[in-house]
């Protein structure tokens, strides 16, 4: 018999080092900080992927992105909603990102699934209407696709639901299921560019004003950089970060209202709450903004891979866990907290008492060229990028002859500025030969098996590309 409700809150692009509970200089998330102060705060969490499609397979299955096949679909493995549904839970999903679509298996196991593609499609229709009709857009798509893309990026409304809409749906689901055990997964996209400008919150967080005109100028610059690789205006970087931090505060406000509701309904002591992110965000630390790397070659640096993780469990007191853990650990931890366990996952229960985990091997992996994130198939010929964490050491390996592996000592160089690959060749060779190359052999076998299987099922269409 299940013991607790489960609410999984995921926040797109959220870096751990931009939350005050992780020591950030600004108060961006006081409600998350209060929950962290009462619950379990994981200080060093390693995302299994640097962008949405790769990381979410892991968050919902407990498997690394390429385990048992590519991350383009989770239909070939068991997911958390499927496991909880078998245990009698009512299951609800607000994925809020077109990459987390039914074609990729993200609706499997959910009683109620809010399809994110419908929101995106309606936003595109509004753009067409404002520009004079759909025929113009179709004409430009056919004859001048670059111009069509530019027009859409410049005039399109954000195709994602705002945090207020997400919160309203969560409240509705809780109301519908409050007399039974429920699992709710809700994804917040407000910290993803383009940034909605909220003047009052901006002033609260930063103690100064910003004009709406300046905010629009910043978003236009970001659109040009992300979609067309135009120059990033470094003189605007501080204001870009300020807008990002303001959006975090907005999401935190929604989470605060949710916590108030759970307390008012006397459900807080019957509910496990997990707050995390799929990946972080780059602010030019290694020459890129966002999470597409440089020229769409995947980056695996800490600004993308160090994510927050807070777990509230009614039966677990205040804890601080300092040793490195993985986003692959979320599924087994949720199940273990409810008294269940699943074998064969890459992750493990993070809260259980055990020997030191300082030498545990953690992985993050993705396609080398991440422009392929929008497709629903990954070829066995796919080139891979892998990051390996063992304690303070981190190796980044690219499956390309043109890219040199990177080795960092994170305790001495947390910003990954000094590549030690030449001074620690023996360590790097050991990691590459005994971990990376063996992993790549397994990945290739899984992709071949999955490719053979997919040849016998109905062909999958491409989905609209979105930065994830």
Indicate the overall shape.
globular
Largest sheet: 8 strands, mixed
Total helical elements: 13
**Average pLDDT taken over every residue:** 89
- Name the structural class: alpha/beta
The residue fraction in helices comes out at: 25-40%
Instruction: Supply the number of structural domains.
Output: 1
Q: For the record, what is the CATH homologous superfamily label?
A: Alkaline Phosphatase, subunit A
Distance between the termini: 37 Å
Low-confidence segments: 128-132, 459-468
Strand residue percentage: 15-25%
The arrangement of helices and strands along the chain is EHEEHHEEHHHHEHHHEEEHEEEEHEEEEH
Report the CATH architecture: 3-Layer(aba) Sandwich
- CATH class label: Alpha Beta
3D architecture notes:
The chain has 468 residues and is of the alpha/beta class. The chain has a single domain (5-351), classed as Alkaline Phosphatase, subunit A (3-Layer(aba) Sandwich). It contains 13 helices and 17 strands. The protein has helices at residues 30-38, 52-61, 80-86, 116-130, 134-143, 145-155, 163-177, 199-206, 212-228, 237-264, 302-305, 330-337, 425-454, and strands at 5-11, 40-42, 45-46, 90-94, 112-113, 182-188, 271-277, 282-283, 289-290, 306-307, 309-312, 319-321, 325-326, 361-367, 384-390, 393-398, 406-409. Strands 5-4-6-1-7-11-2-12 form an eight-stranded mixed sheet, with helices on both faces. Strand 15 (384-390) and strand 16 (393-398) form a beta hairpin. Helix 5 (134-143) packs across helix 6 (145-155) and helix 7 packs parallel to helix 10 (237-264). The protein is globular. The model is unreliable at 128-132 and 459-468 (pLDDT under 50).
């Amino acid at each position: 018999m299940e013991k607790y409700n489960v609410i999984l809150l995921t926040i797109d692009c959220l870096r751990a080092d931009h939350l005050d509970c992780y020591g950030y200089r600004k108060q961006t998330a006081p409600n998350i900080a209060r929950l962290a102060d009462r619950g379990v705060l994981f200080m060093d969490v390693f995302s299994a992927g640097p962008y949405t499609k790769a990381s979410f397979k892991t968050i919902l299955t407990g498997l690394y992105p390429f385990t048992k096949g590519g991350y383009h679909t989770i239909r070939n493995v068991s997911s958390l909603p499927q496991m909880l549904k078998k245990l009698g839970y009512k299951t609800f999903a607000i994925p809020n990102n077109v990459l987390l679509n039914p074609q990729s298996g993200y609706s499997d196991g959910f009683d109620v699934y809010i399809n994110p593609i419908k929101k995106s499609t309606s936003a595109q229709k509004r753009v067409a209407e404002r520009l004079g009709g759909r025929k113009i857009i179709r004409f430009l798509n056919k004859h001048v696709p670059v111009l069509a893309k530019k027009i859409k990026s410049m005039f399109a409304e954000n195709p994602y639901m705002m945090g207020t809409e997400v919160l309203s749906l969560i409240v509705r689901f809780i109301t519908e299921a409050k007399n039974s055990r429920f699992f709710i997964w809700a994804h917040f996209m407000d910290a993803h560019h383009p940034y909605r400008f909220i003047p009052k919150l901006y002033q609260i967080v930063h103690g100064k004003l910003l004009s709406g005109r300046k905010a629009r100028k910043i978003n236009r610059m970001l659109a040009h950089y992300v979609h067309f690789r135009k120059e990033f205006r470094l003189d605007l970087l501080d204001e870009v970060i300020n807008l990002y931090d303001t959006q975090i505060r907005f999401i935190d406000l929604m989470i605060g209202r949710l916590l108030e509701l759970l307390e008012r309904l006397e459900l807080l002591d019957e509910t496990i709450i997990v707050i995390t992110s799929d990946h972080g965000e780059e602010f030019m630390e290694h020459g890129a903004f966002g999470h597409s790397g440089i020229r769409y070659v995947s980056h695996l640096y800490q600004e993308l891979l160090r994510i927050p993780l807070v777990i509230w469990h009614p039966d677990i007191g205040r804890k601080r866990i300092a040793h490195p853990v993985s986003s692959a650990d979320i599924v087994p931890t949720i199940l273990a907290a409810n008294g269940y366990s699943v074998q064969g996952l890459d992750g493990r229960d993070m809260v259980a008492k055990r020997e030191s985990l300082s030498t545990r091997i953690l992985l993050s992996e993705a396609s080398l060229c991440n422009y392929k994130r929008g497709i629903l198939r990954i070829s066995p010929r796919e080139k891979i990028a892998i990051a390996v964490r063992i304690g303070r050491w981190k190796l980044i390996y690219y499956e390309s002859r043109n890219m040199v592996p990177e080795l960092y000592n994170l305790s001495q160089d947390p910003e990954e500025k000094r590549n030690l690959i030449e001074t620690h060749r023996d360590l790097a060779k050991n990691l590459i030969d005994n971990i990376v190359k063996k992993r790549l052999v397994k990945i290739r076998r899984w992709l071949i098996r999955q490719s053979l299987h997919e040849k016998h099922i109905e062909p999958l269409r491409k989905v609209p590309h979105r930065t994830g």
